[in-house]
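Subject: mismatched residue count in predicted assembly?

I count 1752 residues in my input, but I want to confirm that the predicted structure covers every chain. Input:
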Amino acid sequence: MNKLSIAPPLGRMDLLTMAEASQLVKSANGHLAPLLRDCALAVLSCGSHADDANDLLASNQNFKLEVVGNGPLISFLLTSPPPQAFVDGEIIEGIREHLYAVLRDIIYVSDKLTHWRTRGDSASDITFRILRNTKLLDEQPSSPLAVCWGGHAISEHEYDYTKEVGYQLGLRGFDICTGCGTGAMKGPMKGAAIAHAKQRRRLSRYIGISEPGIIAAESPNAIVNNLVVMPDIEKRLESFVRLAHGIVVFPGGVGTAEEVLYLLCILLNEKNRDQLPPVLLTGPESARAYFESLEHFIVDALGEKAKSYYKLIIGDPAAAVRYLAQNVIENPRPFNWDIEIQKELQIEFYPSHDNVAKLKLSRSLTTAQLAINLRQVFSAIVAGNVKPSVIRSIQSNGRFKIHGDADIMMSLDTLLAQFIKQGRMKVSGQYEPRYEIV
Amino acid sequence: MNKLSIAPPLGRMDLLTMAEASQLVKSANGHLAPLLRDCALAVLSCGSHADDANDLLASNQNFKLEVVGNGPLISFLLTSPPPQAFVDGEIIEGIREHLYAVLRDIIYVSDKLTHWRTRGDSASDITFRILRNTKLLDEQPSSPLAVCWGGHAISEHEYDYTKEVGYQLGLRGFDICTGCGTGAMKGPMKGAAIAHAKQRRRLSRYIGISEPGIIAAESPNAIVNNLVVMPDIEKRLESFVRLAHGIVVFPGGVGTAEEVLYLLCILLNEKNRDQLPPVLLTGPESARAYFESLEHFIVDALGEKAKSYYKLIIGDPAAAVRYLAQNVIENPRPFNWDIEIQKELQIEFYPSHDNVAKLKLSRSLTTAQLAINLRQVFSAIVAGNVKPSVIRSIQSNGRFKIHGDADIMMSLDTLLAQFIKQGRMKVSGQYEPRYEIV
Amino acid sequence: MNKLSIAPPLGRMDLLTMAEASQLVKSANGHLAPLLRDCALAVLSCGSHADDANDLLASNQNFKLEVVGNGPLISFLLTSPPPQAFVDGEIIEGIREHLYAVLRDIIYVSDKLTHWRTRGDSASDITFRILRNTKLLDEQPSSPLAVCWGGHAISEHEYDYTKEVGYQLGLRGFDICTGCGTGAMKGPMKGAAIAHAKQRRRLSRYIGISEPGIIAAESPNAIVNNLVVMPDIEKRLESFVRLAHGIVVFPGGVGTAEEVLYLLCILLNEKNRDQLPPVLLTGPESARAYFESLEHFIVDALGEKAKSYYKLIIGDPAAAVRYLAQNVIENPRPFNWDIEIQKELQIEFYPSHDNVAKLKLSRSLTTAQLAINLRQVFSAIVAGNVKPSVIRSIQSNGRFKIHGDADIMMSLDTLLAQFIKQGRMKVSGQYEPRYEIV
Amino acid sequence: MNKLSIAPPLGRMDLLTMAEASQLVKSANGHLAPLLRDCALAVLSCGSHADDANDLLASNQNFKLEVVGNGPLISFLLTSPPPQAFVDGEIIEGIREHLYAVLRDIIYVSDKLTHWRTRGDSASDITFRILRNTKLLDEQPSSPLAVCWGGHAISEHEYDYTKEVGYQLGLRGFDICTGCGTGAMKGPMKGAAIAHAKQRRRLSRYIGISEPGIIAAESPNAIVNNLVVMPDIEKRLESFVRLAHGIVVFPGGVGTAEEVLYLLCILLNEKNRDQLPPVLLTGPESARAYFESLEHFIVDALGEKAKSYYKLIIGDPAAAVRYLAQNVIENPRPFNWDIEIQKELQIEFYPSHDNVAKLKLSRSLTTAQLAINLRQVFSAIVAGNVKPSVIRSIQSNGRFKIHGDADIMMSLDTLLAQFIKQGRMKVSGQYEPRYEIV
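Triage response: the counts match. Full output below for your records.
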């Protein structure tokens, strides 16, 4: 039986009070234990070639994790951990950091979230607290941060493009922040790392912002030197937006499209006019159709003007990054408090038939409000396509009924059909609409 | 009207949530405003030659302080501040740091203390939390910390001796921590600073731990580069003991003697046998009588063995420091959790007639318990000599009645008489005992 | 016409006297100009995919280089440089460093070499001076340095093996030093860079030691952050040996075999018994035949004992590196003066018929001396196979006549034949021996 | 017999070739041994209270110094060194640095000077080479350097003034460079050190530039963290001028006046109009007479315009330093090559009767040339007053004969008389002119 005790990295988890340490051990070994185990396993498997989360879990059934307290000191006790995380019995330092980042974020949030919500902290305050607790905000950023979004399952050709964009970003002094998985989340970091080495930058930040539901499925890649696990998708998105000094969107699937819509919701808010970082949509020629479908939908639904809030550059990484560099936010702050994010974007939208029926999709709304509602419809339809519980609900209760202008819905319909044709969505069998317009 | 806005030092007070910032502004301008103003004035007057706190306050009646919030950002607005804190309109960086340290500690503690106490946090946990919040514990100490105690009103000759000891400490790589005023609290830092320069140490720590009742009366000296304001005397003492890798006691008055008793209480606890840093009592020839009186009392009351818990070296700074260096705690930790500090030492002892009457001073107690009770009697007698409210209480209710062994009380009596003779206590008129033995 | 002025990196070339600067400009634009131009072109083409030096030169015929002086300040003026060295008109910092490293080493050596030789400086002193001038020796090494040798034209499979060994070296804290080209000189650096990132080491050294005849043919790879150009092959070899705290030999061709022989010459010297770093021969299964042929020859010629001076590990990168780590030189010094390197190894051996005829290959010699003579025969035979001038000389004057024991020569013959069979040597047509034994 | 071996500070003297090390040991133990011993003794006595060099030498007659080589490594072997340089048998790090600085400068210069002069290096190139060899020029200065001149034997009141000016300089971010002894050379460093601590500057430079004839008489003070020993007074003066971003002249004696004249020689050179740092003359009220006498002479001899090249501020340290800060050289370089220093200022003027007779002091000369000649006359007269050899020469050969305008000479005469009256010159008996005008 292979048991290993893993102490925290220097300067982490060693500043707890007795009470904090004992509470942490209790929480970590209590109801959070399964989540913690799976996240830890993902982190320890960094660089493995397991195809998906299920494989990973299946091939490590003997892996056990315990959090052990000794006065104010905390350590992990691992049973049968994946061997590639170790060198001659010593854990690789970066993996040790990720392991304790997972503990830090999951337990910290779990212990405090109810308290914060009870006393009425805003979602932005909570997002800030979690980021602050990671020490990510401690230092004034000396270089701008490019947040990169896009699909994790893109083609090798598109992956190479994201690497080249990362290389061009790195040459121009950008640090990189992504969602911390593979594909468009890994390529920019790899490219930037090579460029940073060539430019002799030694203190680059490669920030990965994950989420408990995602991290267990996708190991953070090895380059990430700041791993953050936000408690939900909404806070993860808010973190991206408030940390970014420039945003790059690579091709992806429906998720990526929904993220673009999220950005537009914020950009269309008049108060954010001078706050938001530049938004760049870019990919190789093979991604042209994807972005053009998306843009067509945006113009149809939100008007020609919506195009002016981002820049689309196809097939020219250097030109794309030059655009970003020229429009980057000056005097970067670690966390941009000045962006106003609408409440609807900060809370999870659950696509029940009721909730969907209440949404309005009418040109009588402000464009910003229409964008918000659209993102929710969008979210519902996507869920109807892929989430088992929502699929079941549709099977029982019939299609979603949406009250709205027909042309908007048709645009959305067209967009999804094109995504399927382009191979950007995985659907089995004949696609069948999940909604009807009332 | 001279108004100046003072932004926080880089990396301090700029990581607040909106809610925290607005709460802080409210607290700082509310019932804590007078305390904050007086502490800030002390800090801004660093290096001034005002004889005492009253002079300081008197000569700066126009000084006003406001804490101003702008979203999550906080700054001070000062009206008519003492000019010596500024260069060409810019505040001196070290004073800016002290100013924000005062804000940080007073407000942080004020906002949290009730909450902590309500939920039952231990005194040690609270002490740790306050120190952690100052970032003092963030880094593994690379050099041992000598905590220096002693009188603030010692003679120039004795002051020079504390400088020489500081010089010898600095030559041997010690950082310095004191109570942050003048006299024996300043000399060691000055001496160490010269030695550190000669030894080419650039990152030395000069830690000053003050208390709201003290800081307003005594400006922290300019050398202090880590100012901490603990909420009460007991947590200040506990901080000293848990941070120290070696303790130096210079001659002082009754207060210093009480501190030595505090140390003995801890040292006499069997469980602390291998935990405590070495304790050194030292001074020039002129201090021999002071230390001999003290030692005589200790042996009388607590037994010959109590002498073995400290080392007394007179008139030889190099030999004294060599003793400390040879016995210094190895592998220093930032905060020594393993010392057991008795509850009676963590809470304030209020010398009412009732409380004093309840104390037992009998050789039937364990030596450790006797030491604790003695420290409280000691504290009561001192208060009876100097604290107006206690003096009045004795005038109304008669002398304290102490139940105890007569010989112990006589020893204490002798000690105080000797201190008066040596000029170590300021009493006006004929000294008259404040107690009688029952 | 695209002209660019390139200032030196911060802290380089800006500390010249007026006289030095003007002499440097004169030298750089005088007889050294063609060499400097070609080396600079190689450095500027870093990362290009030109197949060989000729292609590189052919495709950059318009490239011109001038060194310009302005008082004590020096800069480059480039005409039509390869565009990939620049970002938005700014040169990539690492390439700027390489450019000035070339200038520094070539000009410095050229200006001083005659002077040093005239006054009788030893070869080791000269090697040291050149390395010292690069500032490579300035800091006490905090991590051990693995010197990696091997072929630049190995298969992709063997290249991946060198990367994996580099990764294992990097995980165990080794810095990397190679000959600065592709293949086995690039793989270990790439692997180590990934491992260093995972282990959070930020200040790793990737040292490339090149030579004017080599650098123009092979661009230093991008990872090299210390480029040194030694004036000849012998000083380059001596640098490797004196800098190394461990030596790794990957499969290569005849050149690699000659380097192993060079190491053995030094290892067989009794005085070096405790001085030399551990020597590891390693490769994947595909390299087993190569190393076994080499070992067979070594045992035949120099005796069974010669095997004990190195370790051969096939197909297990982790085990191989563990061996190196366990035997690494402790307390590493920046330059190991204590190794005794024989004079014959420090000067070039020119394979004239006369020089070869004078060599003795007899078991009556000490093994160390036999090894030295063998290396020279080896060098002559290789030259006879590949160097045009030597081939012509053999065509005119007949085969080399070697005075020696027949069995030694037969072993060598067998070795070369096996290398040809294994595809480790490029020969056209039927191989024909270049020597006969007298 | 107390013998101690002193290794070099980390990173110094450990990068020598075998040949360099053996040459250094030979030189250090050869004809330079007595000079090296006396300089080392001065450095080891740092902080001692010996009144003068003679006392120092007298009280350390048993002190012996040997330089020992071990391959390329060098160390000192000291017999009976002054004890205050050591802590528990370990040398104080700053003194170790000074000790090796002395070795470095004296031996380096001694070994190279003849070589440089033979090949015709300029005085500026040589000055630069010596400074470069100290690594003082290695880093781009991040803060301006104030060079402070003035007497070493000033009153305590004037010494306190230099401390206050140093404090004001330090508050405004200046580093300090002086001649490395006591009085006006120590005060500014002490004041600046306190201000730097208050401003939290950790990497301040306190540069002391000495000379072999001076250092043995005056221990470098403890604050100096860059000690340089220039080979002669002229190169020392040139170093000051080319390193300075601002120059402060405190009251002194004739030597200080001569230094002001040296500055004026450079300032009056049209080509230096925009090159020179601001020159500030300052002192307390007690120094007003000194500066007014000096200014009177300057105006008489060189015209009203000469006053415009410096600023005289009496009794207001803050205002004085504000002037310097407002006029400081921007974008400071480590060594200002652009100042043109006349040849006559770079070579020693020996005051033989012949040399003095050849000097012209006529208003027909350019003002710059007149200033140069005046400085030499000045130097001759001073020597005639104080240097034994020159006094004897005057006794044998009569007064110096000076060909010049009578009014200029009378002004000089007046100046010297006033200095005597002010107690700025030490003369015994009745002052008698050493010259006559022809």
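Chains C and B do not touch (no CB pair under 8 Å). Marking this ticket as 'not a bug'.
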